[in-house]
Amino acid sequence: MTTSSDHAIRSALTSALQGQAKRVGEQAPSVRGADWRLATVTAVGAGTVTADGLVWRCLSSYVSPTVGDVAVVSQSSSGNLIALNRLATSATPLYTPIYRYKAANLDRTTSTLSDDPDLTVQLDANAVYEVEMHLHYAATDAVRFRTDWTAPSGASGNRSALGPDQGQILSGTSSGGAGRFGVHNFSTVCIYGTRDSNTSQCVAIEEATVTTTTAGTCALQWAQATTSATFTRLAAGSFMRVTRIG
């Protein structure tokens, strides 16, 4: 004779077996088949990440995985585990250049350095960026062209400066002459030579790998070397390219 307690026991046993079968099936590739899901990275190895208690092999495109990443992971029906990449966040995506450019000339008649209103961008905290400045400028030799950078507080790195050497006066028919090739701190002032004309342009290129600890502004600062009513110009076509690489 079957009693109500027997039914209760059988029901509990059935539920337990079904639950166990479901859990095993969820983890067994032969049962669940191939799929993908999101998982939070808890550890990083040599070419691998650990997430959901499993070790996933990273694709070559998943560069610099970090604990806390929300990663797209995939499991094949044969049990192979791969981590495709992290999800994008509100932060700057990796390897996608951001451009800032000057649509019009800007003229200044001061030796006080200040951020350019166009060549400026916000950098994320705890990130690595490649920052490039391509500058078309014009000034007379008496006042010249002077630069430095604004960088987020605590940022590390050095910036290179490539262009006509200070004191160099290029003629209207020659673009050659002595150059400068220094590598400096972000706040080191660089002074460039000119073509002795505030309308005939020269080019300077500055770049740096910037490693941040806090978020903040990265911008070109520029001014005249000597204050003069004869303006110094940063010309239309100058641009800034910023790429997060880590």
How would you summarize the topology of this molecule?
Elements: H1 4-27, H2 29-32, E1 35-44, E2 48-51, E3 54-58, E4 70-75, E5 81-86, E6 98-101, E7 106-108, E8 114-123, E9 128-139, E10 145-150, E11 159-164, E12 179-180, E13 183-184, E14 190-192, E15 197-211, E16 216-223, E17 232-234, E18 239-244
Q: What is this entry, summarized?
A:
The protein is mainly β. It is built from two helices and 18 strands. It has two domains: 32-87, OB fold (Dihydrolipoamide Acetyltransferase, E2P) (Beta Barrel), CATH 2.40.50; 98-244, Jelly Rolls.
Q: How does this model look, in words?
A:
This protein has 246 residues and is mainly beta. Helix content is 11%, strand content 45%. The protein has helices at residues 4-27, 29-32, and strands spanning 35-44, 48-51, 54-58, 70-75, 81-86, 98-101, 106-108, 114-123, 128-139, 145-150, 159-164, 179-180, 183-184, 190-192, 197-211, 216-223, 232-234, 239-244. The strands form three sheets. Strands 6, 7, 9, 11, 12, 13, 15, 17 and 18 form a nine-stranded antiparallel β-sheet that branches. A hairpin with a 5-residue loop joins strand 4 and strand 5. The longest helix has 24 residues, at 4-27. The mean pLDDT is 86.
